[in-house]
Amino acid sequence: MAFLGCGYLGTTYAVCFAELGYDVVGMDVNAEKVAKLAAGDLPIHEPGLEALLRRNLDSGRLRFTTSYEDIAEFADVHFICVGTPQRPDSDAADLSQVETCVTDLAPHLRRKALILGKSTVPVGTAEWVETLVQRHAPPEAGVEVAWSPEFLQEGFAVEDVLRPNRVVFGVKSDWARDMLYAVHKGVFELAAVEDREVPVVVGDFATAELVKVAANAFLATKISFINAMADLCEATGGDVTLLARAIGYDDRIGPKFLRAGVGFGGGCLPKDIRAFVARAEELGVGDSLRFLHEVDRVNARRRTKVVQMVAEMCGRTSGPNGPDLSGLRVAILGVTFKANSDDVRDSPALSVARKLMRAGAVVTAYDPEGMIPAKNVVPDAAYAKSVNEALAGADLVCVLTAWEEFRHADPAALAELVSHRRIIDGTNSVDPTLWTGAGWTYRGMGRPSI
Ligand code: UDX
User: Fold this and answer.
1) Which atom of ligand 1 is nearest to the CA of 152?
2) Are 367 and 398 within 8 A, CB to CB?
3) 216 C-alpha to center of ligand 1: Å?
4) Residue 444 per-residue DSSP state
5) For the segment 83-117, what is each residue's pLDDT rounded down to a tens digit?
6) pLDDT tens digits, one per residue of 329-377
């Protein structure tokens, strides 16, 4: 197997499929990244992955290359794992990496092989990839295309690949379907040993592509729904954490993805819902996804809301240009888009940091894993080496990522470090009674202030 693109997706898949016993090569055009991976050095923070990378490099089942000739010669299945970021000029997905990797690989293919799409793409991409293959691969090779979306969550990526809750195959032929079953044999065998079953959904290209974006649109909607309920709770004195628990007991609704807070971020949900809307508009069914605009807007308002809360708690007034926070010292705990990750892509925490600074606040941030990437994105904030250092002299503390370290912090000890004992819990993850007991004024998201 070859995995084209050694980013988050490709690296995790390459390592996990080597772990399942396949002979794997990871391919990337970035020679520096390939050299690092080949040396057992993982460029991302993902629990458990580096140990598996090293073990499989040592076993000889896994290697990395920059060469299309190499993978064309080596592999029966070529997984497309390249990025599909938001285009700079619109909400649509940028498919240039998919195009480049397919058109660069195809001419080197000499025997029948499967090009298997994993990247999240607008519906219709698999058909287009098929036309690219027909144009660029030697016709006698009989190369086929299939699509099988991934659902991995950062922080649980290894588990999600080895023990998926379902697999989806978008195919056009029996040969491609049989190849996909063979490709996942290791996944099915592991499930059988553990007395589990992995459901398989086999369908056409369009359905397989839509499954991924539909799943992400649903998750994003669920989060924005609970954040909208948080506004209602705040307006009425209710508590959204209790509301979420109560509605979550209905198993038609379920308890997951109902954590109100600063909203969703990351490399997937925000860009995927926008690209989905853009694609629906191209297809003439934009009206059907108009609600996703609202999902996006609810989400964006979470970030401005934190800034308003800071102003309210510190008695700052708002002018036509928003609140004036000049000179206010704000400590930010958490800069990554979620806990157990070093990813700061579209991080709500960094967006809040930027808005606070724009309003005149002096921001000092701390995060257990995300400091280096955060410095690249928001270089003008100050970065502290610990929670204690971040809080020294602060007028207000904002918890913006739900790291365990913050939940277990001692509010009594921290109270000694700050200028004013004010905390905004943007993640609803710290215990309000503990903090108020230590003399702090607490505000959560969609909860009564104490
Ligand atoms: C997501 C999907 O879960 C995954 O299936 C898909 O393949 C890629 O996108 P990921 O980006 O790793 O995965 O993050 P996820 O755990 O889904 O969280 C997304 C964002 O939503 C985070 O910012 C998180 O903090 C936020 N979130 C999540 C909430 O605000 N409330 C919740 O209840 C859950």
Assistant:
1) 7
2) no
3) 9
4) -
5) 999 999 999 999 999 999 999 999 999 999 999 99
6) 999 999 999 999 999 999 999 999 999 999 999 999 999 999 999 999 9
Closest residue (by CA) to atom 28 of ligand 1? 257
Q: What angle do CA 407, 157, 376 make, to 5 degrees?
A: 65
**How far is residue 8's CA from residue 341's CA, in Å, rounded to a whole number?**
12
CA separation for the pair 177, 135 (Å, rounded): 23
Nearest to 148 by CA among 97, 114, 196, 175: 114
Residues 5/151, Cβ–Cβ less than 8 Å: no
Taking the CA of residue 268 as reference, the ligand 1 atom at the shortest distance is: 9
For the question of residue 16 being annotated catalytic, the response is: no
**Identity of the amino acid at 2:** A
> Above 80 in pLDDT, residue 449?
no
Contacts of 195 (CB under 8 A, 6+ apart): none
- Residue 416's pLDDT band (cuts 50, 70, 90): very high
Q: Which residues of 402-437 are buried (b: 16+ CB within 10 A; e: fewer)?
A: bbeebeebebeebbebbebbbbbbbbbbbebeebbe
- Please tell me whether the overall predicted TM-score, pTM, comes out greater than 0.90 for this model: yes
Q: What is d(CA 224, CA 232) in angstroms, rounded to the nearest whole number? A: 13
pLDDT higher than threshold 90 for residue 292: yes
Asked if residue 338 has its Cβ within 6 Å of ligand 1, the reply is yes
